[in-house]
Q: What sequence folds into this?
């Protein structure tokens, strides 16, 4: 089974879901000098771990359940997530069975488990409420999204090379991709919920980059006002509107755009360090550039 | 945090914003702010986009969202 595509194939997936990113382990393996098929088990393990973590995240955050477990309850979702974790571990073990990849199987398994421990720590911190400031926001984003994408890139490349300097480049590239995806996911939290036309009327807005940026910089009185608006925004359209006005006036749009530019630049620089070979380099650059904000 | 501080001051103090355009290094230094040349370039480019495309946070989310949560 092949989940992703190589450097010589065209993506048919939407850039708004996981399908596009499944190619990361394959492309990084190829870009480091390996063969596409070396990354099959790694890609399966990565996507299964992602699916398990995503499911547990939804239960923890009390998000809207998916249709398949809406009536069955969160216990069933947690049970399925546990099954996905063990399935992922089985896929990871298979890396050791192949002559071309067996020598790096232990390193890759350790990389997986360390990365997921870091992600778990970020998830745990979310239980304590929104980040207190921008520094904490970036720490959590790096622990969760950054670590996950860094894993796909670093482990994919590790299948083909043990050059520490190059591997660090792949790791940095993945981290920056993860941060960019987190920024865009936070922008999504501003959009109206299905069936509504009111932007910002969502619980997630309080945890988003735009809110944390604004709360970090506003004077105390206005900060308290915004915190109050964010608290009631999910059930009060006027509060949601006022919160977005305060966020807009603080320059959050400019800040988010600047951060996207900065992280894209860091991602491209990381590819230079990874000293890529072949057409996979162009594909990885293209993937990063899908995260740029298109011109209107 | 400094990039955020510069953005906030640009957005809430029009005099600071215009001085930043004409003489960035001196303007930042006067306020005790320090950002890299790359960050300044991203900031000024992004500022042009916000003005030209008349972007606000809702329209930015319209054009730039993705459905990922790790």
A:
């Amino acid at each position: 089974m092949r989940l992703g595509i190589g450097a010589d194939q065209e993506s048919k997936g939407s850039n708004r879901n996981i399908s596009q990113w499944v190619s990361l382990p394959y492309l990084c393996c190829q870009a480091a000098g390996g063969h596409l098929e070396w990354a099959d088990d790694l890609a399966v393990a990565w996507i299964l771990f992602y699916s398990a973590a995503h499911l547990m995240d939804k239960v923890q955050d009390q998000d809207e359940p998916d249709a398949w477990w809406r009536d069955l309850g969160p216990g069933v979702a947690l049970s399925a997530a546990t099954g996905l974790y063990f399935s992922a571990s089985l896929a990871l073990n298979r890396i050791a069975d192949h002559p071309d990849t067996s020598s790096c199987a232990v390193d890759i398994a350790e990389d997986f488990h360390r990365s997921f421990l870091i992600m778990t720590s970020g998830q745990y911190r979310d239980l304590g409420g929104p980040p207190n400031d921008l520094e904490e926001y970036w720490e959590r984003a790096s622990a969760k999204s950054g670590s996950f994408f860094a894993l796909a890139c670093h482990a994919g490349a590790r299948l083909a090379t043990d050059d520490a300097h190059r591997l660090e480049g792949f790791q940095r590239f993945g981290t920056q991709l993860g941060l960019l995806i987190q920024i865009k996911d936070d922008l999504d939290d501003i959009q109206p919920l299905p069936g509504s036309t009111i932007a910002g009327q969502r619980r997630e807005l309080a945890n988003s980059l735009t809110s944390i940026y604004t709360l970090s910089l506003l004077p105390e009185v206005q900060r308290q006002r915004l915190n109050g608006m964010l608290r009631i925004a999910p059930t009060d359209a006027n509060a949601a509107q006022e919160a977005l006005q305060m966020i807009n006036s603080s320059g959050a749009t400019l800040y988010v755009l600047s951060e996207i530019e900065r992280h894209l630049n860091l991602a491209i620089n990381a590819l230079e360090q990874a000293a890529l070979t072949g057409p996979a380099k162009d594909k990885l650059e293209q993937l990063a550039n899908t995260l740029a904000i298109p011109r209107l | 945090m400094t990039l955020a501080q510069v953005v906030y001051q640009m957005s809430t103090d029009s005099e600071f914003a215009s001085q930043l355009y004409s003489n960035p290094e001196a303007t930042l230094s006067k306020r005790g702010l320090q950002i890299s040349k790359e960050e300044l370039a991203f900031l000024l480019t992004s500022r042009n986009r916000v003005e030209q495309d008349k972007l606000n946070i809702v329209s930015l989310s319209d054009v730039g969202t993705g459905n990922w949560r790790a």
